[in-house]
Amino acid sequence: MIDPRRPAVPGDVRRGAVGPLPRTTGRQVVVLAGTGDDARVDWGRVGVHQVADSRDFTDGDVPPEALRDAEATVFSALGIAVVTADPGQVSRLQSAEAAGRPVLSVSPELVHHVLGDESRSYTAGYRDGVADLAGRLLSEDAAPGAARPAAPTRFEDTAQATWGVQAVRADVSARSGRGIRVAVLDTGFDAAHPDFTGRSVTARSFVPGEDAHDGHGHGTHCIGTACGPRSPSTGPRYGVAHEAEIYAGKVLGTDGSGTDAGILAGINWAVTSGCPVISMSLGADVVQVHPPYSAAGRRALQQGSLIIAAAGNNADRRAGDVGFVGAPANSVEIMAVGALDQALEMAYFSARSLPARGGQVDIAAPGWQVYSAWPMPTRYNTISGTSMATPHVAGLAALWAEATGRRGLELWATLLQESERILQPSVDAGSGLAIAPQ
Amino acid sequence: MTQVSVTVDDGHLSALDGVVQGLRAHGMQVDQVLDGLGIITGSVPPGAAGALTAVAGVVSVDEQLGVQLPPPDAPVQ
What we know:
The complex is a heterodimer of chains A (438) and B (77). Chain A is 26% helix and 18% strand. With 438 residues, chain A is of the alpha/beta class. Chain A has three domains: 24-110, no CATH class; 113-143; 163-429, Rossmann fold, CATH 3.40.50.200. In chain A, the strands form three sheets. A seven-stranded parallel β-sheet of chain A has the order 7-8-6-10-11-12-13, with helices on both faces. Chain A has a five-stranded mixed β-sheet with strand order 2-3-4-1-5. Chain A has a two-stranded antiparallel sheet with strand order 14-15. The radius of gyration of chain A is 27 Å and the shape is globular. Chain B has a single domain (2-63), classed as Peptidase S8 propeptide/proteinase inhibitor I9 (Alpha-Beta Plaits, 2-Layer Sandwich). Chain B has a four-stranded antiparallel β-sheet, with helices on one face. In chain B, a hairpin with a 4-residue loop joins strand 2 and strand 3 (39-44). The longest helix of chain B has 10 residues, at 16-25. Chain B starts with a strand and ends in a 9-residue tail after the last strand. The interface between A and B is medium-sized, with 39 and 28 residues. Strand 9 (257-259) of chain A pairs antiparallel with strand 5 of chain B.
């Protein structure tokens, strides 16, 4: 946006905000479509004749002399070439007809420096930045009514979508979780809920003496967040992976209680059923890692199933108590999810990482005032908890599983890699806000 | 009786039946054999859990944890 207090002056071209433009070598870095295959680029057709290929050197170790002398050096294991080429040649490299295989990108080779060399220019840039900020703030004070800085992001439920669905960008994702099985191990599911008519739902109870119907509400709420429809029968969208296949495993009874036996049986069922995503909004407030959950998490990952669990609600940050991640989320092999509010700040109850291995919060998601499905006739309910943050991440995991084909630890890494960093301590929010593929 | 979860090592995942026989011989009532996870659940008389670690292939024997959700009308769950 153009600042109205700074009228444009012809010829007054502002430089990039981070300082002088980077230096380039005149060579081009070419990213090829593949790695290691034998279809070499036809460099001769674009006028490049001296080509060094890393496969021609022992262990792919290309000496600097070869880099200097060759017009093109191909690093076949990376699918990248460094080419001495003028802009005309570059354009011909990118055309499919000229090259033996497609070229994904061509970029100027940059000159990199040890960062310590930049300290003087960094300091100068910092000084200029502070001066600029001071100038802006003072000019605002001098001009009452001038535009204030934008308020920090605060999400709100709308007629179209809940704040959580908006925050994780599920509402603008092209992905739906189609073809991905999502297991939610909880209090069961209300199969008669009108928002799930026509959906693929497999329900199973691991609670002795109870069928898979949800007599509590927690399970239906979590399934709603993870897998609810794109267009509910009434009200806003509240679900993330709206075409995922639902596996509702009842491991907690109508009274909300359960034990290892039922929970582990539910995990076993989800893994052997081929569910890439297993959502567990449950836990016990114990500091010690529980070995069966570590083994279950590790073996689930090996078989392509990612277990995502609630970090826990044992904090009271209003009273200065940050709590701790309980079991099973404190197993290193199980992803732990913290809860955020509409300002993307920690919910007061969201547990903090333990110092021990595995006790960390891995990622965060909306968990404050979350609207979702509830057993009929109530239909919908708004509640809070890391239990509500967890199925947001489970739904997002389904979207990423669909988008990338990744499973297990690769899917885990993708969720963290793609999460949006936020202004919260990593001990509370891990890698930040989980978001959907676009 | 004490409810326990027995975790089996990687080397015995394809030989769970033998582990189950060993656990029964040491006094465990076996309820579930979770072959996808390599975990066996069941119960033992009070004080007998420690003896199960002597069975070949057993990594750990842990008393089962319980979890408890707040009631449905609780604002934080």
